[in-house]
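hey so i finally got around to running the thing on that chain from the lab meeting. sorry it took forever, my laptop kept dying and i had to restart like 3 times. anyway pasting the input first so we r on the same page abt which one it is
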Amino acid sequence: MVLPNGAIELIFNFDNPHKLLNKHNHAKFELFRSCWIAGLQESPLLIEPTGQTNLLGIRFRPGGATPFLRLPVFELSNRVIECEQVFGGWITELHERLFFAKRDRDKVRLVETGLMQQLDRERIDPLVEFVLPKLHSADSRRTVAELSRSSGFSNKHFITRFKKSVGTTPKLLARILRFQSVIHLVKDRAQVNWAEVAQRCGYYDQAHMIKDFQSFSTSTPTDYLKHRDANENHMIVN
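ok and heres what got predicted. didnt touch it at all, straight out
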């Protein structure tokens, strides 16, 4: 189970296909073979490799994918799509070059070059650049109305522009980032004082934190500790 992290991820696969399981019926799945993009997720994804894995991933932080895409980012939200449908033929050519590259640093250089050739700085929204740092800070508990007033735009216009570039609303992204701050804080802990963690991460109380755990991991904080793996954003499920 991959938990929501506010990011958009581009994945190149050089080995066996991966399954994206149906959340309600694990016997149903979509198969992804060579390259796919996962939009911002508002709930967890269930993935399963079909054999040995060899992946290269690019993680776009909130708002970071917009300059490389030619469509509103919200069209990718809560979806996983084969890359060619989004990027066109150049991504297939890049995948082929990556497959034959011998060293990791060569793969990284190829990815950086390929992406920079697609970069359109005109698509960077200064409004989003203004708001995002506030969602990463103590200001994240301010209401959307307060943030829109400080931006100089109406509430509706503010939310529309933000969603177009990031893939979700400011309020929901703030919740996801706060949840991520929790699982990062407890990463190396076997025993956790959850009331203390809730306070340090900006929750009103422990009950609000538990509610977010149920939304973003379908589990309680205690169950999360039992089933997480080496990557704190992953949980092992049966």
